[in-house]
């Protein structure tokens, strides 16, 4: 099966270059995706540019009604969407359903476009002078999305972009493109006119074509930090608005007074869910005090005996494979380096074997104790089912560790002490903070984004920031003088003194 592009409402395939798409549980190629040439990307941008004048003038309430229908279609076809996620990403069915639901919540927020785009009005700011601001669409905008959330992250982007009156070009990951393409087709079925939403599959060639085209006014990206930094630098150099979300190394502080049983269950889900392939994955537990660390590691080791790893079709599995063989080997290398540098491998995920899926890209849940900040595995974003334990003496030392790391995406603290929790939330240099919540991913009507090298750009993803990102403010000040009333010429700056 070959996967093409969606341009101007039609599926197209130039039939020149292809890349294999793997089922990571089987470890074998099951499809091929067409890699767009610059000419194909240009067609998609041209289709979006042609659709923009009419689409921007559609009343916001009518655009919102399309989003309502789109939400219904996503729910009606949820089983098929989750199947596509599982087949190409490996995510277990229950996890895929959670991803989809998070995306649907962003569509629900986009349904509020008539309210979100109302603007502001002030009457009589001066003698017979009224002033108002409005939020106008940018034009053609683009989104470049990662493999780990082939549905949720595109739904962070294009629903809000198009409901604000823009036309969109989506470049999903070439590793698992089918689900992204499918939901785009559902959006057209919901009523988006041809050209308003286009999908081009491809690699760096397609990305470069998007970034260099002057008709694309804004680019939203989610991926690794090196690529995010490059995307941001290139897009802004071409005069585009850009938000580029990068990597993470998320820490959880476990205080001596924490409810350890609750902390353990929460840590396991946050560290190993989706095989650890989340930018909000909780990959480091910072235990305050050796007694806390000993008890935490013991309880984690016992609880990990119940973790079940396998294919997406069995909902009793905790998580599935990682995305590629290369990534699997990279994770194995991080585990080996931690061991070589003096850490203790408490549970070794390199030994995993899944009956019937011997060639799959599996990594078992891994627990590493006595990790130190100078170890390469600590510094890197492993992006796999690996939980590392760092031991410190005080909460202040734990917070210093977090603040000194180059990433600042998410963090949390497990404690019963309200004063400690408040101090942590107020002072930690991280963009998203949880108190006894290890995955503090904001709901759809707030905005998502980290600090430091986890985000390049001023505006966060989805929520209220998305409205600002996909629109530009225009302020109009007007006066209709009364008949026969004329003012003399003034060369002073107008004031209300």
Written overview of the protein:
By secondary structure, the chain is an alpha/beta fold. The chain folds into two domains: 2-246 and 454-476, Aldehyde Dehydrogenase, Chain A, domain 1 (3-Layer(aba) Sandwich), CATH 3.40.605; 250-435, Aldehyde Dehydrogenase, Chain A, domain 2 (3-Layer(aba) Sandwich). It has 16 helices and 23 strands. Helix 7 (178-190) links the parallel strand 9 and strand 10 (197-199). It is globular, with a radius of gyration of 25 Å.
Main beta sheet, described?
A: 7 strands, mixed
Number of helices: 16
| Shape summary | globular
- What structural category characterises the helix and strand content? alpha/beta
Terminus-to-terminus distance:
71 Å
The count of β-strands is 23
Q: Largest sheet, order of strands side by side? A: 15-16-17-14-13-19-20
- Looking at the overall shape, the CATH architecture of the largest domain is 3-Layer(aba) Sandwich
Strand content: 15-25%
Radius of gyration: 25 Å
| Uncertain segments | none
CATH fold annotation of the largest domain? Aldehyde Dehydrogenase, Chain A, domain 1
- Kindly provide the name of the CATH class of the largest domain: Alpha Beta
User: Roughly what percent helix?
Assistant: 25-40%
- What number of domains? 2
In CATH, the homologous superfamily of the largest domain goes by the name Aldehyde Dehydrogenase, Chain A, domain 1
Whole-number average pLDDT?
96
